[in-house]
Amino acid sequence: MVKSTGFKKIKTAVFISGTGSNLKSLIKFSKLKKSPISIKLIISDNLYAKGLNFGNIFKIKKKIFNFNDRRSAEKRIISQLKKNEIKLICLAGFMKILSRYFIENFNGKILNIHPSLLPKYKGLNTHKRAILKKEKFSGCTVHFVTSKLDSGKIIIQKKVKINKNETEKSLAKKILIEEHKLYPKAIMNIFSIP
Ligand code: GRF
After folding, report:
1. Distance (Å, whole) CA 66 – CA 96
2. What is the DSSP secondary-structure string of 20-67?
3. pLDDT of residue 194
4. Which atom of ligand 1 is closest in space to residue 20's alpha carbon?
5. Ligand 1 pocket, 139 CB below 6 A?
6. Beta-carbon neighbour count of residue 164 at 10 Å?
7. Is 115 near ligand 1, meaning CB less than 6 Å away?
8. Which residues of the chain have pLDDT under 70?
9. What is this structure's pTM?
């Protein structure tokens, strides 16, 4: 894993597909003096991702790639990442599955946030499935990305209570608030010098 060296911040890329609320919280975190990361690049597969606006607001370079041909998109992304000397990738609501080829190129340097208490509820519709199963708790997880979906080593988790009349929407909202705190915390944990 990459180590934070002195005051040099780790050049980071954030991958998004949608709203980008986690991107926003990561950008805010990256601006803190204590933060080990500096966000240099935003990557999206979706030209219409709302979160791309944060690139304009915070003056961060953004690049959009069409994933119809995943191999070609990934090759072009890798060259962008190398060009910008990116050493850490944070997936934040990125809805495409990256290939083994891509992941192995950045082995141990890709993080993801997932809205469930992994290993429970990998994949999509996590809130709906947790409510249907009458779980008492759900939450969110930050983990390393491996070629097996939502299965890499867990860095940190936050538990959230599921209330009696909880809806998918209310649960998503509660968990998202925790996600915004958890991702920065995970990054602090990984790069803190013991
Ligand atoms: C979050 O719930 C994240 O855990 C999941 O997708 C959602 C993205 O939200 N992977 P946002 O785009 O960061 O607002």
Report:
1. 11
2. -HHHHHHHHHHTSTT-SEEEEEEEES-TT-GGGHHHHHTT-EEEE--T
3. 57
4. 12
5. no
6. 4
7. yes
8. 1-7, 193-194
9. 0.95
Cα of 1 from ligand 1 centre, angstroms: 24
Which H/E stretch holds residue 143?
strand 137-144
- In order of their start, the domains of the chain are 6-107 (3.40.50.170), 114-141+157-194 (no CATH)
Letter string b/e over residues 153-163, b meaning 16 or more CB atoms within 10 A of that residue's CB: eebbbbebebe
Owner of token pair 């975190």: 29
With beta carbons less than 8 A apart as the criterion, state whether 186 and 142 touch.
yes
Regarding the beta carbon of 30 and ligand 1, being less than 6 Å apart is answered no
